[in-house]
Amino acid sequence: MFLGKKEEPELAEVLDQRRPSNVEAMNQVHRKSVSNRGLTGASALTVRQSILPITLVTILFFLWGFAYGLLDVLNAKFQNSLNITAAKAGGLQGAYFGAYLIGPPTWAGWVVRKFGYRWTFIIGLVVYGIGALMFWPSAVYRSFGGFCGSLFIVGSGLSSLETSANPFIATCGPPRLSEFRLELSQSFQAIGSVMAPLLASRVFFKNTDPHDLSNVQWTYLGIAAFVFLLAMVFYFAPIPEVTDADMALQAEQCAGLTGYVDKPLKKQYKLFFGVAAQFCYVGAQVGVASQFIKYSVESAGISDAAGSDRYALGQGLFAIGRFAAAGLMMFMKPRWVLMVFMTGVMIFIAASMGVEGEGGVAMLCLVLFFESCVFPTIFTLSIRGLGRHTKRGSSWIVAAVSGGALFPSLTGLVADKKSYHIAMCVPLVGFFVAFAFPIYLNTVCARELDGFRESTIGYHGEDGANGDLAHERRSPSLVHEEKGITPSEKEVAY
Questions:
Q1: pTM, 2 dp
Q2: Could you read off the pLDDT of 6-53 as tens digits, one per residue?
Q3: DSSP string, 189-233
Q4: Distance CA 260, CA 266 (A)
C-alpha cells in the first residue's frame, strides 16, 4: 500500500525549487517520464491550455465506457454458453472488482508516482488488451477459471486507467473547475456504456446462436487490437504531467482561501472518510445494477427482455444525470450538488422497497439518475487539499471501487432468502454510509472546499506558475527563501 512513498516530495523541497511556467509545462509534454518530486508548472494551466489533454483523456473515458459496456454483454454470452450459475457469476464479479483492491494501492499507484500519468495510461491500456486477448483461449477451451483470470487482468488494466485518468482530469486545469471537468468527462463514459449494449444486441450478435462463442472471440480480439492502438496514441499525445510537487505548490498558493496546512497522510481524515464512502457507494451501485432486471421481473411481472429495456432506460437516465450535474456545478457548489443527488438516492432506494409494479421499477430508474454524479464528485472532493499526497490518495479512492465485489453477493443472498424488494435494503445501507460523507463535507470542510472554488489559479496571464499571488497569499507561518527573491522583495511580490 505504501509503494512509492519515497516518490512524494517534502513541502520545503517543493518551495525551494525554481517554478516553471505553465508554458514550459506544455512545451515539455513529450518527456518519457517525470520526477514526481519536481515542479513542472502544470498546476497552473489555463482553461485554453488544458482543453486538448482533457479532450484526449475524455475520449479515453468514452472508449473505456464503450468497452466496459460491451464487456457486460460479452460476459453474459459466456455465462449462457457455459451454463454459469448465479453463485459462479458472483465469483466473476469478485474477480473483476478484486483487481481494484490490489492494483491501485500497489503497482498502479507506484507507476503513476514513479513514471507519471502518460505511462500509467499506456501500461493500463496494454494490461487491458492482454486481458481481452486471454478471453480467446478461455472461449476455445470453455474454461470458467480462464474466464475469471481474464476478467481479473481486464480489471487490473481498467483500475490502473482509473488510477491515472481520474486525478489527471481533476488536476489538469484551473482548480476551481476540478469537479466540473471530471463530471463532464465521465458523462461521456456513461454514453459509451449505454451505446455498447445497444450496438451489441442489434449489430454484433444479431441472429446468432447463443451457444456459439466465435463472435465473442473475434469481438474480444477487436477490443484488444483497439486498445493497443490507443496505447500508441497516448505515447505521442501531448499529455502534460502534474506532479505531487505541483499539487503541493497549488495547495500552498490557495492557503489564504482554504486554510490549508500541510499534514502527513495519516491525518488526512477527509480522504479516509471519502474512501469509506466510495467503497460503500460503489458496492451499493453495483448491487442495484446487478439485480435491476430481476427486480423488474418480480415487481412488474414482465419478461427478462422487458426488464432489460427498463434497465437501458435507467442507464440513459444515469448518463443524463451526469450532464445535468456537470451543468449544475457551474452555478452551485459541488458539495451542495453531491448532497442533493445523494438525498435523491436515499429517497428513491427506500421507496423501491415498498412500491410494487411499474412504480417500483420507476423508483429504481430514478435511483440510477441520482447515482450519476456521486462517484466523480466524491473523488474530486476527497482529494481536495491533499497537496503532495494527491496521487497516493487518488489511488486509494480508486481501490474503493472494490466494494463492487461485496455488495452484489449480499444483495443476491437476501433476494434468494426473501425477495428482490427486501434485498434493496443492502444497497440502502451502503448508500446511507455514503450519504454521511456530503453531510460531513457541508458541515466540517465547507471553508476548505469553497476556497478552492474561489481560487483564480490558471486564470491570469500566460505564465501562471505562481497562480494569482495577489489573492492567494501563503500562510504566514511558512517562512522560506525563494530562489532569486530576497525577503524584502517577497513582501512586495505578495
A1: 0.88
A2: 678 888 888 888 888 777 887 776 566 778 998 888 888 888 889 989
A3: HHHHHHHHHHHIIIIITTT--TT--HHHHHHHHHHHHHHHHHHHH
A4: 16
